[in-house]
Amino acid sequence: MKGLMLKELYLSRKLRLFGAVIWFVMTVFCVLVRLSALYGNIALLGESSAERACDIAYYIMVFGGSMILYALQFSNSVVGDEKSGFRIYEHTLPVREEKLVGAVYLTNICAFGAVTLVNYIVLLIAGPIFGRSLDPRFLLYIPAIGLTIYVLSLIKGTLNYCIRNPKKASAILTVCVLAVYFGAFFGFAAWINRFFEERSGIDLFSGMSETEREAALEKVGLTETQLMKEFEDKLMDILRWLGDNSWWLVPLILGSLAALCFFLSVRGLKRRGGRC
Amino acid sequence: MNDYENAIEIKGLTKHYDGFTLDGISFDVPKGSIMGFIGQNGAGKSTTIYSLLGIVKPDEGEIKIFGKDFRENELEIKHDISAVFDELPFHEQLNAKMLDRMLSHIFKDWSSETFKSYLDRFSLPYKKKFGRFSKGMKMKLQIAAALSHNARLLIMDEATTGLDPVVRNEILDIFMEYLQDEDHSILMSSHITSDLEKIADSVTFIDKGKILLTGYKDDILASHGILKCTKSDYAAIDKADYISARVSDVGAELLISDRAACERKYPGAVIDSAALDDIMVYYVNREKKEWS
């Protein structure tokens, strides 16, 4: 397993280094923006503009950096193995398919841990630099970004193990991601629409102009801002309830997904060699 | 541990693909010997070798390596097998140093010293990326890796194809050294039958998924011959006495598989020695019987 993990590290080290360099440059840039806001040219923009620039720089430093770092640290040597002929060679090694796939998973889990640690350190450093106190929710948001990217890399890896043509695998992944994105987008929009309709008794999105909508809401003693606020409260209630009562669903779903991907990858790898 | 007669025993190995069937082939590779595995492209050499290495799962048949059932002892056996392919199966961005570290954690008997000594012997750089290696260097690298974990069986699939004669000779010398240990055996598939004539102890000839010939090389070469005759003499020869005949305007050349019997039956006939190349070509044309 250690030898296979070393292979993963060797193959992805250029990409990892590239990711680390981009992240570092971006972090330095964010710090420079902060310093400029305090002592330099950005202050000339006016206090509120400088503050806004600092806000953006802070979020880029904390979340943008973590996105880049996570995205470029998860290795996926499946396509490279196929191209180089290693796919054939690895079947001659005294190693089971489970370990071949497991090495990729374990390397990426280690990368996830390391990147999360680096991001936490950045979060701790960014606070004093930007004069902000630590928001404990960020401690969850950062690994959540990492987990989302990790899940995508898991699915991509599984597709690469199961489908010989890497372009076809990428196309399927893109279609799936777009389907999930648009499904979630339209589902969410429909939910808001239904909530507004139930609350006000008016179909607010049936071709009404903004003025007509405002007038219709005023008749029932509501405003759009008020409705949106209620919706946000409802959403937060649901999330809070899930957090309090069903937090275990998150690791369960992620664990099941990882297990399914692992199972399919091993099966795909065995089938590629004609072994099952 | 070493109590076995044949390094490889294959019985009734069958694998069906769309348009091709490896049809119940059987042969043995005696311990301490080198077997040449010959046949034209698509004959089933690679399918056989891939089955031996566990790359493909046969539909039927039995494979024993070192006297043990391959399926039941796959991981244990794979520690003692090395495979060499016609193309380098390592990523181009790796180098020998990385490969050394990787494989040292995979093979229990991996020796970095042996690997480095082969690299020195082959003048291969330790830190140069494989992508910048020539074809000959890549092949030498594969052989260096294959011989560095004390494997008892070397299985090669067209390993010398595409190499110049100097490099091929160098590699054949290494194989001869490897065979100095009587526990070591080699199965080598190749198109270049001259290499096999030089070093092989036995030969197996496969065509269209079937074994046509298997046995000691010297016996095969001794029993086969090319009978040369005029067209009129050719007409008098019994078709059952030859494998196939190359007929031209000036006469005919026939491959015979029982030279002694033919010499008795056709006294005075000119019968020359047949090379492995000739045997392969005449056998491939056996269904046509007569070709030009």
Q: How are the SSEs ordered, and which strands pair?
A:
The complex is a heterodimer of chains A (276) and B (292).
Chain A: H1 2-39, H2 47-71, H3 78-84, H4 86-90, H5 97-130, H6 138-162, H7 166-200, H8 210-219, H9 224-245, H10 249-272
Helix pairs in contact in A: 1-2, 1-5, 2-5, 2-6, 5-6, 5-10, 6-7, 6-10
Chain B: E1 6-17, E2 20-30, E3 34-38, H1 45-53, E4 60-65, E5 68-69, H2 74-78, E6 81-84, H3 96-104, H4 112-121, H5 135-146, E7 153-157, H6 165-178, E8 185-189, H7 193-199, E9 202-207, E10 210-216, H8 217-223, E11 225-229, H9 231-236, E12 245-247, E13 252-256, H10 259-265, E14 270-273, H11 276-284, E15 290-291
Parallel strand pairs in B: 3-8, 3-9, 6-7, 7-8, 12-15
Antiparallel strand pairs in B: 1-2, 1-4, 4-5, 9-10, 11-13, 11-14, 12-13
Written account of the structure:
The complex is a heterodimer of chains A (276) and B (292). Chain A folds into two domains: 162 residues; 83 residues, no CATH class. The mean pLDDT of chain A is 83. Chain A is built from ten helices and no strands. Chain A is globular and about 75 Å long. Chain A is mostly helical and 276 residues long. The longest helix of chain A has 38 residues. Chain B has two domains: 210 residues, Rossmann fold (3-Layer(aba) Sandwich); 68 residues, no CATH class. Helix content of chain B is 33%, strand content 28%. In chain B, the strands form three sheets. In chain B, strands 6-7-8-3-9-10 form a six-stranded mixed beta sheet, sandwiched between helices. The longest helix of chain B has 14 residues. Chain B is elongated, with a radius of gyration of 21 Å. The chains are: A mainly alpha (276), B alpha/beta (292). The interface between A and B is medium-sized, with 27 and 31 residues.
